[in-house]
Design a protein that fits this description.
The complex is a heterodimer. Chain A has helices spanning about 15-20, 25-35, 65-75, 90-100, 120-125, 145-155, 175-185, 200-210, 235-240, 250-260, 270-280, 285-300, 300-310, 320-335; strands at about 5-10, 40-45, 80-85, 105-110, 130-135, 160-165, 190-195, 215-220. The radius of gyration of chain A is 19 Å and the shape is globular. By secondary structure, chain A is α/β, with parallel strands linked by helices. Chain B has 2 domains: about 5-125 and about 270-295, Rossmann fold, CATH 3.40.50; about 125-265, Dihydrodipicolinate Reductase, domain 2 (2-Layer Sandwich). In chain B, about 40% of the residues lie in helices and about 25% in strands. In chain B, the strands form 2 sheets. Chain B has a 6-stranded parallel β-sheet with strand order 3-2-1-4-5-6, with helices on both faces. Classes of the chains: A alpha/beta, B alpha/beta. At the A-B interface, helix 14 of A face strand 7, helix 7, helix 8, strand 8 and strand 9 of B.
C-alpha cells in the first residue's frame, strides 16, 4: 500500500448533475471554503458536463462558468482548483478563461476510445502551466488494450495523470484492478480512478484501484455525484486512515463539510431502482434525472429506457437519445394498447 | 450540344472521391479534372481509370483549363486559403468543403438564392448542413431566439482533420446556425460514438422560439424543408418529428449516406458531398440558363 493518496473532490462538478446544475455561486463558495479548511488537495468546479456544458441538452446551469470559478477561487487558500472540459462540448477559450481565473488543474475527458480529440485542449492547458488529468470515460466499454492505447495518447499530449473513469458505475472491483494495473504498467505518468456508486461498489472499487497502484482517486461529499453518486470523500478519507494511508485531509473537518450538502440531497423520483439499472446496464450516470423526466413525459418505465440505451451502446453526452428511446417506446406502447 | 457545367475537384481523398462519383451521376455537371499532390493517390488512380484527367501537380493544371467553371476544394482549410485567391484570379467559382470559410456559408435548401453570384461558397460543416435547414424551417413559423444542436457521428467517419480541430466544428456550426439559420444565438455539440456496427449520423435540434407556436405548423414547415433537402441528400430523414413543449421545439434527424464511395453510415460526410453537388447544380442552372438567354437575344 502507498503512503499517500491524493484526493480530488468533485462535489461541485459531478454533484452539479444531482441538483440539475442549480448550485448558486454562493453555495459553491460555502462548500468549497469548508473543504479548503479540511485541506482537501484539489476540488473540481464546473457544470456537470464540464465547461460550456450549460445547454438544453444537459441542462442550463444557474450561473455562468465564470461566476462559479470566481466565487470558489476567492475562498480557496490551500486547495487547488480544477475544471473539467469535454472536447466537443467545451472549447479552448473556456480553458483559457478558467486558467485566467485561477484554475490550476485541467481535467480533459473523452470517451475511452476517442482520446485523440483531446490533443489541442491538453496542449493548451500545459502551455497555461496547468496540471492535466486525462479522463477515459465509460472505461468499461472498450477492451483493456484499447483503453491503454488511448491512455498513451493522452500521456503523449502532456497529461500528468490518466484516469480510469467508471462513468456508468458498472465496474466490479476485479475489473477496476485490471484496468488500473494495465495503465500503471504501460504509462509513465500517474494513474487515477473515478467511480460511481450505482451498484453500491464505489468504495470497494476505489480500494481496488489503490491496491492496483492508483496514485489519485475522486470522491464527492456524501457521494453527491451523478446517478448513484461517487465514493463519499469523507468515507474515503476514513477508510484510507484505517489503512495507514495519508491524504492530508482532516477527517472531522471533511465530515463537517459533508453536512453542508445534506440540504441538497434528494431522492430521485424513480427511486433507487433506476440508479441500480444505470450500473447494471452500463449507462452514463448523468442520464438518471433526464431519464426520470422522459419516463414521466412519455409515460414509460425508466428502467426500460435505460436498458435500451445500454443495448444501443450509447456514450456519455448522448442525453438526446433518452428522448429518442422514450418516444419510440411510447409509440410501441400505443400500438400494442 | 453538351449543356453541362464543367467542374474539377481538388483533393482526391475519401471526400473528393465520393464527390467525383456524385458529379459523374449528375446530369448537369461534367467531371473534367481531378487534382492532387500525391502521384500514388488512390483517388487519382480511380479518376484516371474512369477516363478523367488526373494530375498530381496540384491546383496549377486546374487553373490552366479555361473551360472549367466550378472547382470543388476537398483539401484542408490551410490549403484552401492558398487556393482561394488563385481560383478567384482565374475567374473560377470555388465550392469549399473545408472549414476555411473564405466565402459565405451556404446551405442549398436555405440560402442558395442569396449567393448565386458569389465566387466562393463555403459549406459550413456537416453538422451545419444537417441542422441549419431545421432551424430555418422552425424560424419560418416563429422567430428562433436560441438554437442548439447535438450531432452524433460514428467514430469511424470522423477523420483526423475533425478530430484534431474539434473546436472548429462546434464554433463554425454555431455561427452557421446564426448566420444561415437566423437563430439569434447558436450552440453546437459534437459527440463521437464508436459503436459497431457504426451508427448513422444523428442530429438533435433544439429551438427556443419567441412567443409560442403550434406543433402542427412546425411539423408542416419542417416536413416541407426535409423534402427540399432530400432532393440532394436522399438519405436525410426525420427520426423524431418536432415536439413542442412550451417554447422549445425538439426535432431529431438521421442521415444515411448514398454509399457512392463512402460507407452509408458516413452520412456526415455524404451530406457535405451531396450539398456540394447540390450547390453546383444550382449554379449550372443559373450560369447556363443566363448564357442561354444571352444566346437567344
Amino acid at each position: 500500500m502507498p503512503e499517500f493518496i491524493r484526493i480530488v473532490d468533485t462535489t461541485l462538478r459531478d454533484g452539479m448533475h444531482s441538483v440539475a446544475h442549480q448550485f448558486t455561486p454562493e453555495q459553491m463558495a460555502t462548500i468549497a471554503a469548508a473543504m479548503d479548511a479540511a485541506r482537501i488537495d484539489t476540488l473540481e468546479v464546473s457544470h456537470g458536463d464540464g465547461l460550456g456544458g450549460s445547454s438544453i441538452q444537459y441542462g442550463r446551469a444557474a450561473a455562468s462558468d465564470e461566476a462559479y470559478l470566481r466565487a470558489v477561487a476567492s475562498v480557496l487558500t490551500h486547495t487547488k482548483l480544477a475544471v473539467l472540459l469535454l472536447p466537443g462540448i467545451g472549447v479552448k477559450e473556456d480553458l483559457d478563461m478558467a486558467a485566467d481565473l485561477g484554475a490550476s488543474v485541467a481535467r480533459v475527458a473523452t470517451h475511452v476510445t476517442e482520446a485523440d480529440i483531446s490533443e489541442q485542449h491538453i496542449g493548451l492547458a500545459k502551455r497555461r502551466g496547468m496540471e492535466v488529468m486525462g479522463f477515459l470515460m465509460m472505461a468499461h466499454m472498450a477492451p483493456v488494450e484499447v483503453m491503454v492505447h488511448n491512455g498513451k495518447l493522452m500521456e503523449s499530449y502532456g497529461a500528468d495523470y490518466v484516469y480510469v473513469v467508471d462513468s456508468a458505475g458498472y465496474m466490479l472491483p476485479p475489473e477496476v484492478r485490471e484496468r488500473v494495473q494495465a495503465l500503471k504498467a504501460a504509462l509513465n505518468c500517474k494513474v487515477g480512478f473515478h467511480g460511481h456508486n450505482n451498484l453500491g461498489l464505489a468504495i470497494g472499487d476505489t480500494l481496488a484501484a489503490i491496491e492496483a497502484g492508483a496514485d489519485i482517486v475522486d470522491g464527492s461529499l456524501r457521494g453527491f455525484g451523478a446517478g448513484g453518486g461517487n465514493a463519499p470523500t469523507e468515507t474515503v478519507v476514513a477508510v484510507l486512515k484505517r489503512l495507514g494511508i495519508e491524504t492530508g485531509v482532516d477527517l472531522y473537518k471533511i465530515m463537517d463539510a459533508a453536512k453542508l450538502v445534506d440540504q441538497f440531497k434528494t431522492q430521485p423520483k424513480q427511486g433507487p431502482d433506476a440508479t441500480l439499472i444505470l450500473g447494471y446496464a452500463g449507462v452514463y450516470s448523468s442520464f438518471l434525472l433526464h431519464t426520470a423526466r422522459a419516463a414521466e413525459r412519455f409515460d414509460v418505465d425508466a428502467r426500460d429506457i435505460l436498458i435500451e440505451l445500454g443495448r444501443r451502446r450509447v456514450v456519455g453526452g448522448q442525453e438526446d437519445m433518452i428522448i429518442d428511446v422514450a418516444y419510440e417506446l411510447a409509440q410501441k406502447q400505443r400500438a400494442t394498447r | 450540344m453538351d449543356r453541362r457545367l464543367k467542374v474539377a475537384i481538388i483533393g482526391p481523398g475519401n471526400i473528393g472521391t465520393d464527390l467525383m462519383y456524385k458529379v459523374l451521376r449528375s446530369p448537369k455537371l461534367e467531371m473534367c479534372m481531378m487534382a492532387g499532390i500525391i502521384p500514388e493517390s488512390e483517388g487519382l488512380k480511380r479518376a484516371a481509370a474512369l477516363g478523367i484527367a488526373a494530375t498530381a501537380d496540384g491546383i496549377g493544371p486546374v487553373l490552366e483549363r479555361k473551360d472549367i467553371v466550378v472547382v470543388f476544394d476537398a483539401t484542408t482549410a490551410r490549403a484552401h486559403l492558398q487556393h482561394a485567391p488563385l481560383l478567384r484570379q482565374a475567374g473560377k467559382i470555388a465550392i469549399d468543403l473545408t472549414p476555411a470559410a473564405v466565402g459565405p456559408y451556404v446551405v442549398p435548401a436555405v440560402n442558395m438564392d442569396e449567393h448565386l453570384d458569389s465566387l466562393n461558397i463555403n459549406l459550413v460543416t456537416c453538422g451545419g448542413q444537417a441542422t441549419i435547414p431545421i432551424v430555418a424551417a422552425v424560424g419560418r413559423v416563429a422567430p428562433v431566439c436560441y438554437a442548439e444542436i447535438v450531432a452524433t457521428i460514428s467514430s469511424q467517419s470522423a477523420g483526423p482533420g475533425t478530430r484534431q480541430n474539434i473546436d472548429e466544428f462546434t464554433q463554425t456550426t454555431a455561427r452557421g446556425l446564426e448566420i444561415v439559420g437566423k437563430a439569434q444565438k447558436g450552440k453546437a455539440i459534437i459527440i463521437l460514438n464508436p459503436a459497431e456496427p457504426p451508427i448513422l449520423m444523428r442530429n438533435t435540434i433544439y429551438c427556443e422560439v419567441q412567443g409560442s407556436c403550434r406543433e402542427d405548423d412546425v411539423r408542416a414547415s419542417v416536413e416541407e424543408m426535409i423534402e427540399q433537402v432530400r432532393t440532394y441528400v436522399p438519405g436525410y430523414r426525420l427520426r423524431v418529428p418536432p415536439l413542442v413543449k412550451g417554447n422549445l421545439v425538439t426535432t431529431m434527424i438521421e442521415v444515411e449516406g448514398a454509399g457512392d464511395f463512402l460507407p452509408t453510415y458516413s452520412g456526415n460526410l455524404d451530406i457535405m458531398t451531396a450539398a456540394a453537388v447540390g450547390v453546383a447544380e444550382r449554379l449550372a442552372d443559373h450560369i447556363l440558363g443566363k448564357k442561354e438567354v444571352v444566346a437567344d437575344a
